[in-house]
Amino acid sequence: MSDDPIAQAIAATRRGELIVFPTDTVYGIAAAPDDAAATARVFEAKRRPAELTLPSLVGAIAEARAVGVLDDRAERLASALWPGPLTLVVPRTPRSAPWRLGGEADSIGVRIPDHPLARAVLAGGPLATTSANRSGEPPATTCDALHATFGDDVALYLCDDAALVGHASTVVSLLGPEPAILRAGDVDADVVARLSAG
Q1: Which of 110, 114, 87 is nearest to 23 (CA)?
Q2: What span, in angstroms and rounded, lies between the C-alpha atoms of 150 and 18?
Q3: Which of 113, 119, 129, 197 has a CA 20 to 30 Å removed from the CA of 66?
Q4: pLDDT tens string 106-149
Q5: Beta bridge partners of 181
Q6: What residues contact residue 44 under an 8 Å CB cut-off, 6+ apart?
């Protein structure tokens, strides 16, 4: 077995196990998106309502295009704001159409995080990732708190030395004729409107 924690994390997700890793916003709990049993374990570990949809993190724009249909608005937003705290909700592609991510079967939330450790893990492929906390509780900010929350439900924890205190990403739906802010975050709505309009 490799002693490289990045390689271990990628291998764990490919075995259908859960991992926790830092992003540029908060810690994420993640699983392989194409493994329905693994994504179900994310819902169980978080006690997350099944009607909510798990977003997917990717390591590169080509991966985003492989799992989501990026129109001109999405391309402009991605070019300007990725990597960063912006999640785009777009139609699924044939690759992601079978993924069991929760409530929305026709769309997918996708983003590229601006964190070197996250990007290294995502070099192994997209991950269904949501904030590492029980639903309704604030995200855990330290490794001790993460272990206390999830214990053995998570196979591998990748942690920063310092507490990770960030804000959730801005979530923008591009499913309609106008961009819709589904969750406010670090990217302002006026920036989204300006960039998406070209």
Answers
A1: 114
A2: 10
A3: 197
A4: 999 999 999 999 999 999 999 999 999 998 898 889 999 999 99
A5: 172
A6: 153
User: How are the residues of the chain apportioned to helix, strand and coil, as percentages rounded to the nearest 5?
Assistant: 35, 20, 45
Which candidate, 124, 126, 132, places its Cα nearest to that of 110? Answer: 126
Q: Which residues pair with 86 in a beta bridge?
A: 170
Q: Which two tokens stand for residue 146?
A: 């993460």
Which DSSP helix (H) or strand (E) runs through 149? Answer: helix 143-150
pTM value > 0.90: yes
- pLDDT above 90 coverage of the chain, percent: 84
Amino acid at residue number 111: R
Cis peptide before 83 (omega within 30 of 0): yes
pLDDT for 1 beyond 60: no
Report the alpha-carbon distance of residue 74 to residue 88 in Å, rounded: 7
**1 is written with which tokens?**
């077995």
Distance CA 181, CA 159 (A): 30
Rounded distance between C-alpha atoms, residue 20 and residue 150, angstroms:
10
Q: Which of 61, 59, 53, 17 is nearest to 38 (CA)?
A: 17
Residue 89 φ/ψ, nearest 5 degrees: -95, 115
Collapsed DSSP state (helix, strand, coil) of residue 125: coil
Dist. CA 30–CA 175, nearest whole Å: 25
Q: What are 46-75's pLDDT values in tens digits? A: 998 888 899 999 999 999 999 999 999 999
